[in-house]
Amino acid sequence: MVHRGMRWTDVIRLSGDMRWTIGRSSSNPIVLRSAQSSRQHAEIRPAITPDGPVWAIVDLNSRNGVQVNSRRIKAPTVLKEADQLQIAGFELTFTRNPATLTRPPVRLPSVPGAASPNGSGAVDDGATQDNLGGDWQSDCSDDDGDNGESEVDVVSQIMSSGLAGRINREPNPTRVENSSDSDAVDPLLAMAFALGRAESIEECGETLMQTLEDLMPGSTIGLYLFDAEQKAALLEGAGLAPPRLVRQPAGTRYRRPPTPLIQPILQPQSAAILARNVLGDRRLATENTAGEIDVESIILAPLRPVVSERGDEAPAERNALLREKSLPVGLVHVTTPAGKPALTANQLRNVVAAGEIFCQAIRSIHREASLTRSLKKSEAVISRLRRQLAGRIQILGNSEPIRLVQQQIAQVAPTPSVVLVRGESGVGKELVASAIHHAGPRRDGPLVCLNCAALSKDLLESELFGHEEGAFTGATQQKRGKFEVASGGTLMLDEIGEMSLDLQAKLLRVLEGHPFERVGGQSPIQTDVRVVAATHRDLRAMVEQKTFREDLFYRLNVVEILVPPLRERGRDVILLANHFLHSFAESMARGRLKFTSLAEKKLQRHRWPGNVRELRNVIERAVVMSPMDAGGDGNVIELDADDLLITLVAGPSKGNASKASSGKVSEADDSDDLELSLAELEMRHIRRVLESTGGNKSRASMILGIERSTLDRKLKKAQKD
Ligand SMILES: Nc1ncnc2c1ncn2[C@@H]1O[C@H](COP(=O)(O)OP(=O)(O)OP(=O)(O)O)[C@@H](O)[C@H]1O
């Protein structure tokens, strides 16, 4: 094996009585393209010793000498298994063992005082060489001479790593190549382009085979691709399954490589090999039906994707990468029949390069397939969640006014009309908009909500219509507006009554089907959006006061849905309260909870200025404060009126505006608590919190938001009183 650096190696099979001269001249069977090499530098020749036939190396009076295991030889020297030769800057290894052929070359550390490659300072103490003039030391007698094929095999091997990028840039140091090889880059380029377009592994395989045929006309070619099962079987010593694809020119028949050659090539980091002069060698080729080995040369190349490590992978990820790197995903096997020209080292490099390009292509296809699979899974999950969501988005309630809302939703949802949803704060206007979206034909498109009250005029304009980069200070990049984002779906404009008159004009144009421009932009953008607007304001009154555009009002008010306040929904309060109770109890794992009749009475009597939002908060707080172990024994825990902390009313509402503005506690209606002083009410709450923490005062003081010392003080005071 002739190594050049760690990259690739040419190994030449020695056989017969021939003398294998090594040198710069291309008339040598082993050519070393180096100025350090003499024209005829050295010779490997067969010899007979008392222990049997051997191979020996002779320095042919070269200028720079020959070293065996880093010692310069002065006489013919018998070669032993794994001897390392240094000739003219090249490293050569002598081996009889085909299993070593696929291993990367191992460099010997240089021996102090050994000759340098250019021969200067050559030293030979003559102590370690077996040489033909001295006693025979037949170190090679234990080698595989049992089948009578003890000649050294000469094979080329290439480390398959990133070679594609360097293809045809490295000169071939050991052989004068066939001139037709110089065109090889064209089939490789053509293959790279074709693989870029390929959509299946089969297509990639056919492309690779076509390229290999072009690169090595007249050869038989087998392509093997291993799935996980085949890989495992192979590593356990099973034979090769039939090749995935085969090319056999007329008059030839493809035969699988022999098992001894397969095992080493399946090992981690194995290199591709080229064996020439194979005729009659059962270790390198499989016999034909007549029992003969009629093969001139072979190439066996593992297919292994080049995995570039980023260096920042987690250890597990790195190990997976290394495993992936070490196991071949397949094999390319090429043979030339006896009597035909042998395969060349350049062809070997081209096979390896083609294999690498092929591996990258199939990896992309695998990745794409796995991405498509996970995309499909995600889409299925999304549509399941959408269906679940649509099922959950139900406007709960059996009261007359809410039934009317449900009916209106069912009527408008399938249409493209603009809808105006009106109602007090927290009645469920956004829920209504969401129900319209999910019950309509746009349900698979986006639902985008924008609160017009939350933003300044300029920001709202840019949120609605987007902006171009540099449109204003801070517009560091282009941004799509909600009208673009919601395309194909629904845009809910909450608190539309708070929009400035300028923007109202711009909005009207879009609602009338005109295109719009992003802020600072010129290009018109057309969008396909259904608009649902919502407000707690009386837009009609605003129109009269000239604070809302009349034309926009009529454009928005195509269909109006008025969501009633909770206080007008009768028993719906209890229905909703129970709905929230069960869903919070479930999400907080609080077991089975129910309201006492007193609690229900309290819920029903309250005016609910904050509407459903307020009700939801009251129930959520009651569930949070309910005992942690509720339901552990399967018993139903009852929530009493005391557990429902209905607190300060913030903001006016029609029904209880007077109470709200006077800042009174909203449960002023709740006669149960009317007799209690604030101190008593506080102590009741403290006791309940303490109960819920199992008497843990530190946790109770945290929940209550007071210092532990304050809690102690209050408890002491209560005891005294
Ligand atoms: N009928 C209902 N069934 C179930 N939940 C409801 C119902 N109505 C309202 N809710 C709940 O009440 C809360 C407030 O609802 P939503 O945000 O839709 O009200 P809104 O009228 O849009 O409020 P705002 O005026 O503040 O925008 C939400 O948590 C919503 O899920």
UniProtKB/TrEMBL annotation:
Residues 140-152 have a biased composition (Acidic residues). Residues 101-181 are annotated as: Disordered. It comes from the Bacteria. Pfam families: AAA_lid_14, FHA, HTH_8, Sigma54_activat. The keyword Nucleotide-binding applies. One of its GO terms (biological process) is regulation of DNA-templated transcription. The keyword Nucleotide-binding applies. Keywords: ATP-binding, DNA-binding, Nucleotide-binding, Transcription, Transcription regulation. Residues 395-624 form the Sigma-54 factor interaction domain. One of its GO terms (molecular function) is sequence-specific DNA binding. Residues 20-73 form the FHA domain. This is Response regulator of zinc sigma-54-dependent two-component system. It comes from Rhodopirellula islandica.
